[in-house]
Amino acid sequence: MGFAIMARRNQCILRDEKRFLRSKFVKALAREAFSAFGAVEGCILDVGCGRGFWTKMLRSSYTIGVDIKNAFDKRKISPRLDFILADGFRLPFKNECMAGAICFDVIEHVSNDLDFLLELNRVLKKGAILLSAAPNKNRLTLTFKKLVGKPVKYPYHVGEGKWHLREYSKNDLINLLKSVKFEVCSVRGVFLGRFPNYGLCRFPRVLEEWSQGLLVKAKKLSRQGFLDTLDSGGKQLIDMEVLCE
Predict the structure, then answer these.
(1) CATH number at residue 193
(2) Is 46 exposed, middle or buried (0-12, 13-18, 19+ CB in 10 A)?
(3) Tens digit of pLDDT for each residue in 214-238?
(4) Pairing between strand 156-159 and 162-164?
(5) Where are the beta strands (DSSP E) in 74-123?
(6) What is the 3-state secondary structure of 195-228?
(7) How many other C-beta atoms are found inside a 10 Å radius of the C-beta of residue 151?
(8) Pairwise CA distance, residues 221 & 165, whole Å
(9) Nearest-CA neighbor of 172 among 187, 161, 162?
(10) What range does the domain containing 192 cover?
(11) pTM for this one?
(12) Tell me: the pLDDT tens digits for 71-125?
């Protein structure tokens, strides 16, 4: 009986996940994110990748999904896409070996966002781009709760077994990333309305303060230029043994 209940619960979780991944919010985030990131020649990390939805969308010569849970869809693995079961606080990679990284809806869940970002900084090459998406603590629904005298308290329960230990404003994210030696290139609001489908994907930037999410693009501080390619022609695949310690 217990197994049947667990199986039904897992089916419900997968169904809800599929609905979320088809939502207007995700489409808006994808458009903003990949126009900001562009194509990268080199290895990109997707830290906190879950089942690998964003991992497979990245345009790079090699992409590695990393998560503490073994939920990655192994059908996505290919010569240019891999998965490693690892803790984001102790990534199994050498210093300055990654050409870029993303972490979407991750930092609000981790126990120490500062240490988490320091570890990401360690493995990124000088000049590498980090894209991070996080919930906006001033989004419309929470602003309304404050107005009616019911402000959110953290940890904040957001779904089946999911909690936000903290959330962020635009200035919170800028200050956090600057404190771990990233240069913040931009912070954009993503989706205006009720999460995840009732609202606007495109809206005037003056309303970003109340957007659902925030997408920050940051660069690891460097005296050099932007990203280095991992090989002269940009075609050679990366040996995992070279990247891992």
Answers:
(1) 3.40.50.150
(2) buried
(3) 999 999 986 443 333 233 443 334 5
(4) antiparallel
(5) 81-85, 98-104
(6) CCCEEECCCCHHHHHHCCEEEEEEEECCCCCCCC
(7) 10
(8) 28
(9) 187
(10) 23-136+169-243
(11) 0.82
(12) 888 887 888 899 999 999 999 999 999 999 999 999 999 999 999 999 999 999 9
